[in-house]
Amino acid sequence: MKRIAVLTSGGDAPGMNAAIRSVVRLALSRGIAVTGVRHGYQGLMAGDFVAMDSASVGGIIEEGGTILRTARSEAFATDEGQSRAMAALRQAGLEAVVVIGGNGSQHGALALHRRGIPVVGVPSTIDNDLRGTDMSIGADTALNTVVQAIDHIRDTAESHERTFIVETMGRNCGWLALNAALATGADVVLIPEVPRDLAAVAETVRTRRRMQKAHTIIVIAEGAGDAVTIARTVSELSGIEVRVTVLGHIQRGGAPTAFDRILASRLAAAATDALLGGQSGVMMGLRGNEIVPVPLEVAVAGIRQVNLQLYQLEGIFSI
Amino acid sequence: MKRIAVLTSGGDAPGMNAAIRSVVRLALSRGIAVTGVRHGYQGLMAGDFVAMDSASVGGIIEEGGTILRTARSEAFATDEGQSRAMAALRQAGLEAVVVIGGNGSQHGALALHRRGIPVVGVPSTIDNDLRGTDMSIGADTALNTVVQAIDHIRDTAESHERTFIVETMGRNCGWLALNAALATGADVVLIPEVPRDLAAVAETVRTRRRMQKAHTIIVIAEGAGDAVTIARTVSELSGIEVRVTVLGHIQRGGAPTAFDRILASRLAAAATDALLGGQSGVMMGLRGNEIVPVPLEVAVAGIRQVNLQLYQLEGIFSI
Amino acid sequence: MKRIAVLTSGGDAPGMNAAIRSVVRLALSRGIAVTGVRHGYQGLMAGDFVAMDSASVGGIIEEGGTILRTARSEAFATDEGQSRAMAALRQAGLEAVVVIGGNGSQHGALALHRRGIPVVGVPSTIDNDLRGTDMSIGADTALNTVVQAIDHIRDTAESHERTFIVETMGRNCGWLALNAALATGADVVLIPEVPRDLAAVAETVRTRRRMQKAHTIIVIAEGAGDAVTIARTVSELSGIEVRVTVLGHIQRGGAPTAFDRILASRLAAAATDALLGGQSGVMMGLRGNEIVPVPLEVAVAGIRQVNLQLYQLEGIFSI
Amino acid sequence: MKRIAVLTSGGDAPGMNAAIRSVVRLALSRGIAVTGVRHGYQGLMAGDFVAMDSASVGGIIEEGGTILRTARSEAFATDEGQSRAMAALRQAGLEAVVVIGGNGSQHGALALHRRGIPVVGVPSTIDNDLRGTDMSIGADTALNTVVQAIDHIRDTAESHERTFIVETMGRNCGWLALNAALATGADVVLIPEVPRDLAAVAETVRTRRRMQKAHTIIVIAEGAGDAVTIARTVSELSGIEVRVTVLGHIQRGGAPTAFDRILASRLAAAATDALLGGQSGVMMGLRGNEIVPVPLEVAVAGIRQVNLQLYQLEGIFSI
């Protein structure tokens, strides 16, 4: 193998740049050249390629986003799109691909692998919903961003003795909301994995007011329902005004935490070495302290389960 | 004078605690006792008072929010409400009041002053819309919070080459949005003080896409119009998708910046000394480097003008 | 069991407060009362006790340091000191102890256990040098503090094209320095676990200058030698000026990261439940994603090994 | 005028990049080309020049350090050095210079001006010791960095009930130390502008211990004496152990605050317009809210005075 490609795809996540740097520098140290694919699968189909040297990834380890850009592509889901991508890879002499991204991106990686080109995935999504890895790149940074945002909102909630609903990202996975609730000592958390009982939530809000703990923080995963509708219901049931803050896109960006920089460096290095060692069709995952290969079929089969012991702990602490 | 009161009112702002600490410690150093009023004017009417000693304000200089709590009160706007407040003050032997808050709070301070009790105001609002002071407590912290949030969003905007509208607080004043746009190198800023031209905004979005500067950040003050409506219009006119992030309540909280801690300490100390020196009916303001008294009538007469030279500068830089 | 004690001991670490909160709230939810011991083992010998209720741990999850205070005690290492501690526990009706701290503290926990009182340890040290747990409370926060500090120093190193040595804490363990070096893309790292070769370091400094990568960042664990002496040697061997920054006590404090708040909550809850379930003489550790008991003898037998694969990776990336 | 030069010199400061961006974009908007001088006066003598366009300053407003690099140059202080610089400017067709830097840099600017080339200075130094401006670029960011560092150290000081001396930068000026002490509620501050009384400091340390405020934070400006020697003296006089943290180079770097980004943008734009308007031999300064020209002779004549009212306030608050 002489030259491999690397791309970032799907939603951007802090640490993607550290992963790109790791692929480039590790491959160069093994005598392999690296080509960057711009704009994810869209750029792969279009042959939007750029040669990467060691200097091209200097100073990016601490930067959020992705220097290779990213995109979501519907065309790549089609047979024609994938054929165009394969042709572009062949034409550029690219013999293997490292795919950095979340669930949709790893689906794409699997499609390429099935067409015969060696592909290894690197899990990267702030939702942390990928199977086969304890943590995906970007999740730790996003969690800290959410925690700092809720710490801010609590200042106002306490000062005004108000009830706030804070909506986090996470798609259909409650990881981000649950961990943020636990880390901020939130009073209630609603996640897709646990059926919700808004009457009980309203009762908590009322009880806290009676106990002179006048403010209440409710964290909701975006997959657990519409924050505005839930706020209205809780407000009607409790008779207490409820305000909503949707954290939105501030959750994606920012300098990656130490954890994400190191995780990205390790996973991407392992992915590159796996490709050079002849592997394909796998995603490198973190299991405990080890980096292990996971079949892409497993990684994309549904979403990761959250640790429901944390949900119980959150309930105990917020009494 | 033997005992004065201090209260925080209206929206909470980072630095209010530093101001409370300053009133308490400065008064004590002058041999004057201090009583804290909880929950702003609502607590003033209800006699919700707490004695403050030096230790009661220990360790709060770095905390957001307000340990005295705050509230918005409609009852205090009435003659009856103000009479109740006066009675409560008399009964508790409170001879003067320091009022820490924004526009509505200083209106209340003026009402008390007119009823004959010495009152001095301390400007505190993240909107920075108060006349008679260059800066209000909390504005610098909120500005830095907004700037960090936009720095985050830019990571995603660049990576996905998208157009984002970010809505800041500020009520009818563009200070927060304008300064945030200048500090983040945003491409467009819409503030209440300048008539908006959405066709020109759409043209900027289109032009930037043509110039391969594929992403655009538009900052909107909440007083400049509804972000979602504006996004729809710009999107229709430009043919380019526009996403909206409303920063919301994260803008209020957090540890105050050095500037806000020092400003709060200086303004509140000056307000306390002004009361002890026999002044009333004024708000202490920052003018250049000096702390000066401003008649409350002046402070609450309309909103502060923003520096439109900054608006022009923002336009030049974003070319 | 009706009443248990909790203490923090040794160097403070961010997350200790989250651990205290977890012990108190979990125990209360199980119908068990909690007494806080102030000033670590010193307070234990002196009977410096304070009853804890749910409100006493409100709002502390986000605070660095420890509300129970901490101390290092030589007297407790003696037979007489331990006897006094046992007497104080008996007299106060305290039937078991949760010990939150690092290596020395867990040694103390083992001594108490051997005298017959149930004791469970919670690992907490920014050095992350304790055996039997993948991570100790405070290590993730300290690592992020170090990473941010090095990110700052790199701005200056790049701007002035200088060589900097940055010394981290870590006692005899290189975990903090190694992970910080990897996360910041430092050019050289010196840790106690790997023999150092200052001639090679000087050669790296010289080579980088020749390659127009004019600045060099060298991270040193405090256990790897004296930073000033090493700087002098590298400077003499390379002919290039080397500056030293000793990060010092900024590494201990600050609001805990999300990871440390959650880890502290989980470990301390597990420790409390272990005590209630009849266990003693163990420390709760993180192994992969699980919380597991580790015999105290194992936890304190020497220091944890660092992952030398990370050392190799650091070498590859800094080429 | 068709082409101007811009350089950064002396110690780097956060906001220098925002100033460079401002010079480039404002000049371009006026139809003037800009050349960057690399490595300060050293590069000026060597003709180390780079053409700047709008894109060359894209994305740098939020970055610490300086993309033009900086250096301290002794050769430029000589007649020969200055002659070489003048020749290099002439040869490259550079008709005027914007000099971004501190005291030494503005001395250099004055020398160039006296040799007949138009020069305008932009004050930039974290020490904030330049006359003729209320604030220099970088000072607000450095102050916030110091404040956060002391907030960290206080966690440990409180937890261990210890006495800490924290040394800040500032050269012969106490601005940084004094403002940091005020903003963190430090107990003692030592600055070059006020004669020190270590017996009184020791008495404060002893008194606080007696009053059960067991910890003490002492902030020292580097110009106020050697921290280690002072610590030894205070320790001997008080009988209480005193620890020292020298904050060092973390004070220089990091993303600039909103204030520094805006100040840099305004000062550098005004400097560029002043050059285009025919001015020379001045530095643009902030006076209150206005940007005003100050003769370079005035700016470099000694160091700025600190506001000693803040010193008195600090004394009152720390009682």
Give the topology, please.
4 copies of one chain form a homotetramer.
Chain A: E1 3-8, H1 16-29, E2 33-37, H2 40-46, E3 49-52, H3 79-91, E4 97-101, H4 103-114, E5 119-123, H5 139-160, E6 163-168, H6 175-184, E7 188-190, H7 198-210, E8 216-221, H8 227-238, E9 242-246, H9 258-276, E10 282-287, E11 290-295, H10 296-299, H11 308-317
Parallel strand pairs in A: 1-2, 1-4, 4-5, 5-10, 6-8, 6-9, 7-8
Antiparallel strand pairs in A: 2-3, 10-11
Summarize the structure in words.
The structure is a homotetramer of 319-residue chains. Chain A has helices at residues 16-29, 40-46, 79-91, 103-114, 139-160, 175-184, 198-210, 227-238, 258-276, 296-299, 308-317, and strands at 3-8, 33-37, 49-52, 97-101, 119-123, 163-168, 188-190, 216-221, 242-246, 282-287, 290-295. By secondary structure, chain A is an alpha/beta fold. The first copy, chain A, has two domains: 3-138 and 256-299, Rossmann fold; 141-252, Rossmann fold, CATH 3.40.50. Chain A has a seven-stranded mixed beta sheet, sandwiched between helices. Chain A has a four-stranded parallel beta sheet with strand order 7-8-6-9, sandwiched between helices. In chain A, helix 1 (16-29) runs parallel beside helix 9 (258-276), helix 2 packs across helix 3 and helix 5 crosses helix 6 (175-184). The model of chain A has no long low-confidence stretch (mean pLDDT 96). Chains in contact: A-B, A-C, B-D, C-D. Chains A and B meet through helix 5 and strand 9 of A and helix 5 and strand 9 of B.
